[in-house]
């Protein structure tokens, strides 16, 4: 079972809902997390149970970032709106930096999200073994 988080900017929420609906069969059986409105929208149209955090601008991105830093997430699908300035851009940058530091796969667009979800579906998502080998502070 993987721990997967969903985040979507306002103009990407419909796209996220459609994507999750299409791959609902893959996400069933995994532990799911999301920022507030995104998670609510997904649960309204699927049978998925999602632990919802605050809205992104109110701290939800940071809450998910905390999970990354504590090694409590395996993957993030974060559909960003690259054409709209976000008032909480520093939080977004911090979250993406944490994903890089801790080797957490993060999809920021639907094409990358689909590749990662298909990898989950095939069962060939054993990246954690490699990540832990190179984790900061781990002696070789």
From TrEMBL:
What residues does the MGS-like domain cover?
A: 1-140
Q: Which Gene3D superfamilies does the UniProt entry name for this protein?
A: Methylglyoxal synthase-like domain
Instruction: Provide the E.C. number(s) assigned to this enzyme.
Output: 4.2.3.3
Enumerate the SMART domains for this protein. MGS
List UniProt keywords, sorted A-Z. Lyase
What broad class of enzyme is this?
Answer: lyase
Classification via Pfam families: MGS
> Can you tell me which residues form the catalytic site?
61
Q: Name one GO molecular function term.
A: methylglyoxal synthase activity
What's one GO-annotated cellular component? cytosol
From the UniProt record, list the reaction(s) this protein catalyses: dihydroxyacetone phosphate = methylglyoxal + phosphate
Annotated family: Belongs to the methylglyoxal synthase family.
As for what it does, the entry says: Catalyzes the formation of methylglyoxal from dihydroxyacetone phosphate.
> Any idea what this protein is called?
Methylglyoxal synthase
Task: Give the encoding gene's name.
Answer: mgsA
